[in-house]
Amino acid sequence: MADNERADLGAMVMRLGRRLVAMEQPILERHGVTMWAYVVLTALRDGPARAQASLAAAINADKTRLIPVLDDLQKRGLIEREPDPADRRVRLLGLTPEGRRLQQAVQAEIRAAEEVMLSKIKDQAAFVRALGELSA
Amino acid sequence: MADNERADLGAMVMRLGRRLVAMEQPILERHGVTMWAYVVLTALRDGPARAQASLAAAINADKTRLIPVLDDLQKRGLIEREPDPADRRVRLLGLTPEGRRLQQAVQAEIRAAEEVMLSKIKDQAAFVRALGELSA
DNA sequence: GCTTATCATCTACATGCGCTTACGATTCCG
DNA sequence: CGGAATCGTAAGCGCATGTAGATGATAAGC
After folding, report:
1. Distance CA B122, CA B102 (A)
2. Would the CB atoms of B14 and A17 count as touching at under 8 Å?
3. How many angstroms separate the CA atoms of A93 and A95, rounded?
4. H-type helices in A48-123, by residue range?
5. Does A2 map to a domain?
6. In this complex, is the C-beta atom of B112 within 8 Å of any C-beta atom belonging to chain A?
7. Could you tell me the end-to-end alpha-carbon distance of chain A, in angstroms, rounded to an integer?
8. What are the tens digits of pLDDT across the range B59-99?
9. Which residues constitute the domain of residue A37?
10. Which residues of B17-27 are buried (b: 16+ CB within 10 A; e: fewer)?
11. Can you give the CATH number for the domain in which B7 is found?
12. In a domain, A53, yes or no
């Protein structure tokens, strides 16, 4: 297929996205976390505790939709939620050791599955780097 | 960032997907077509006329959701819909010259915007090829 | 000190979509 | 020939999500 005959990037990216979701879903279920929960744990993995509003913006989530996800993670001891002493309107979120462990376990399995998928192509590192640049 | 510190493929692909949709939306609006309409026109661009059920499967759409999209495209003279003489249960869909023209005009603009986006990376052809292989 | 704004939370509405069921017309199969 | 299946279409249910508005607590600004 000539270059001008390839599919739209959008079409290819959407198909790949669906495939990745299908790949991740069993891993997430095995660990008992939803996709949103995993996204939250991953976002909280690095850096210091952060506010709910800041987290919602970072992961492109509606803040009102985040409330029950955070409630559940907190209840399961995976995150902690504390008022910011500097501004008691704000709740600061951080991972507990258990939350960090779970996030790392899930991510390790996702990585392994990604490696299998990526093994279909050559120059995997270049592809991933380019994907990172385009999605930054 | 080391390899084991990169974001999940899923996260990067979802972000790229949102970016591509945001890029395409104004182009589609300018031409007065919805995303689904454009997907249909593109799917019908090549090959002979095809059945509605076959089209729905090809573009990953619910066949009952496709009815109004096809109704509108037909009404606007962009596709034609005719009973298959070999099996009158089936309606065969094809592009009209006008539909083909519109699809090509939209796709040309999308391609141009994609080129701008891709210009951020090196080895663009390799990236697109790899993306094609992973999403096939 | 009072007004405005922000944070988190709750509730509700609207939209899109996956899925299911049902129907009439038509075809297939035993 | 009759029953089962398919196609396209219509209608509806349920879920997910974006969005808006309201609330109490708290903070900022004049």
Report:
1. 31
2. yes
3. 7
4. 52-58, 63-75, 97-118
5. no
6. no
7. 29
8. 999 999 999 999 999 999 999 999 999 999 999 999 999 99
9. 9-135
10. bebbeebbeeb
11. 1.10.10.10
12. yes
